[in-house]
Amino acid sequence: MDLNEIKTAVIQMDEKSTEKLVIEALEEKYNPLDILNNGLIPGMKAVGELFTRKEYFVPEILLASDAFYRGFNLLTPYLKKASYRKKDKVLICVVQGDIHDIGKNIVKVMIESAGFQVIDLGRDVPIDEIIKAVKTAKPQILALSSLMTTTMLQMGEIINRLEKENLRKNIKIIIGGAPLNQEFARKIKADGYGEDAAGAVDLIEKLIRE
């Protein structure tokens, strides 16, 4: 089979075909990471481009997301490692006001597949909840995601709160999302910007070693 078939199934918002094709790819011994990177993710990227061109709208985005997750959930067990490096915790979430979590979920699985323990707060997470989780879980890394220019500014507020509560020195903060870049990361005093899921893992590995 061709992994482009999976991409097409996602674009066509076909949950059953996506599931069937992912199972078929696994049976044919395709690398689960290749199925994700060369099938499912390109499908959602194409859907995003269709949305930008106003050829797809919110209902199509949601249906395509359902198809994506049908395949994504099948891959998750294969991408995870059996044992975590218990001392290395990554707290991840999408900031308050933003419900776009596909990118965050992809990054989460990639981080888990690298052997880190991931604490996922989900999407649309209030600042107070993030601060509380940092205090409770004491993660080495805080990964913040935003796909909207209206919510990305909260990342700076979160960092300011961590500084005020004397928590900043004990944690590295990375950010990710379509409207963000390395310049914005520097501006808000984050420790780095992950352009994509693989970049986020590389950045976390680097920061953990520091």
Number of domain units: 2
**Strands of the biggest beta sheet: in what spatial order?**
2-1-3-4-5
CATH class of the largest domain: Alpha Beta
What is the approximate shape? globular
Query: Based on helices, strands and strand pairing, what is the structural class?
Result: alpha/beta
Low-confidence stretches: none
CATH topology of the largest domain: Rossmann fold
Strand content: 15-25%
Named at the architecture level, the CATH assignment of the largest domain is 3-Layer(aba) Sandwich
Q: Main beta sheet: strand number and arrangement? A: 5 strands, parallel
By CATH, the superfamily of the largest domain comes out as Cobalamin-binding domain
What percent of the residues sit in helical stretches (DSSP H or I)? Answer: 55-70%
Through-space gap between termini: 43 Å
Write structural notes for this entry.
Helix 3 runs antiparallel to helix 4. Strands 2-1-3-4-5 form a 5-stranded parallel beta sheet. It has 9 helices and 5 strands; from the N terminus they run ααααβαβαβαβαβα. The longest helix has 22 residues. Helix content is 56%, strand content 16%. The model has no long low-confidence stretch (mean pLDDT 91). The chain folds into 2 domains: 76 residues, Methyltransferase, Methionine Synthase (B12-binding Domains), Chain A, domain 1; 125 residues, Rossmann fold (3-Layer(aba) Sandwich), CATH 3.40.50. Strand 4, helix 8 and strand 5 form a beta-alpha-beta unit. With 210 residues, the chain is of the alpha/beta class.
